[in-house]
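Project outcomes to date are best conveyed with an example. Our students and postdoctoral researchers have been running inverse folding experiments weekly, and each run begins with a structure described purely in tokens. The record below, which covers 316 residues, was selected by the lab manager from last quarter's runs and is presented without edits.
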């Protein structure tokens, strides 16, 4: 009596598909005999075997011996044979996800990148999730697009949950975000100004210094009930009160963001007249503007009407 194999091995996920082996009895001439055979299992909690040799295996790791017996008859002596079934757990493969470098210095001047550009490797094209441990420094979306927000240290983490074939895994890359851009200097020639609504409904007397000529610029007013600001920086007076006018530069790949502010007091006062002064008694530190709001050099003044230190004067 024999079985086709002495040992049969399968993985747990394939155990349900194995039906078992049937014993074969042959005479001395090699002829197969049709004799009654009984089957038994050495571990019925793990494997049940029917009278015909059909097995039902547990889908957990284990081992069992199946034995076939022929009791004998008037013509043939008793006989038996056994084979072993081994069910093993299939070892999952490594996911293989990783970063080529686990720490990278990166410049805020180029704020948009991807995990692929950062050296993330996913050779088995597995479904992974991305996250940032400091979203105020850098964010990463579901597709792996990374947006740098400010200088600092941040971890970009990639996680694979695992599946039937690959083990769960994770990979991380630390970004050191630096900002090597130039800081532009924006400033106004005065910290405070006064505008009289009796002299017009706009104010353009503030001079902005923008040496690096960064652009575009935007303007805001902290109290738009008092004054609003047009896109070119001209202030539109609305009512008496105080407000802060701020110019903003958002930053670009060459320059950092910057801003400058001045306080504006809006009054509604009757103008009693225009003061007369002469060129000779003009103070050297006076801030002089023409009626178009342009600052002029006190050493190159000619006779005419000017705004001196916030007041309209006639220069003789």
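After processing, the design step wrote out the following sequence:
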């Amino acid at each position: 009596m024999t079985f086709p194999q002495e040992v049969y091995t399968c993985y747990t996920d394939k155990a349900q598909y194995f039906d078992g082996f049937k014993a074969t009895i042959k005479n001395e001439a090699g002829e197969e005999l049709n004799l009654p055979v009984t089957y038994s299992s050495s571990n019925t909690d793990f494997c049940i075997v029917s009278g015909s040799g059909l097995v039902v295996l547990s889908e957990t790791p284990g081992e069992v011996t199946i034995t076939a017996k022929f009791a004998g008859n008037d013509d043939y002596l008793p006989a038996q044979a056994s084979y072993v079934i081994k069910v093993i757990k299939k070892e999952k493969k490594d996911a293989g996800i990783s970063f080529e470098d686990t720490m990278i210095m990166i410049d805020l001047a180029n704020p948009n990148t991807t995990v692929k550009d950062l050296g993330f490797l996913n050779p088995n094209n597995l479904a992974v999730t991305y996250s940032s441990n400091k979203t105020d420094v850098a964010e990463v979306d579901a597709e792996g697009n990374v947006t740098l927000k400010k200088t600092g240290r941040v971890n970009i983490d990639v996680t694979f949950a695992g599946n039937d074939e690959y083990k769960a895994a994770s990979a991380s890359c630390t970004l050191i975000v630096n900002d090597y851009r130039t800081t532009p200097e924006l400033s106004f020639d005065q910290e405070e100004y006064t505008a009289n609504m009796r002299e017009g409904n706009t104010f353009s007397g503030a001079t902005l210094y923008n040496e690096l000529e960064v652009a575009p610029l935007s303007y805001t007013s902290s109290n738009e009930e008092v004054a609003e600001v047009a896109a070119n920086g001209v202030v539109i007076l609305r009512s008496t009160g105080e407000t802060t006018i701020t110019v903003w530069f958002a930053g670009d790949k060459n320059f950092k963001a910057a801003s400058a502010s001045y306080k504006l007091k809006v009054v509604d006062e009757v103008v009693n007249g225009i003061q007369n002064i002469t060129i000779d008694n003009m103070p050297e530190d006076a801030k002089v503007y023409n009626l178009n709001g342009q600052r002029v050099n006190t050493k190159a003044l000619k006779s005419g009407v000017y705004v001196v230190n916030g007041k309209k004067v006639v220069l003789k």
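The chain has a mean pLDDT of 91. The domain at 98-178 is CATH 2.60.40.1080 (Immunoglobulin-like). The training component of this project remains on track.
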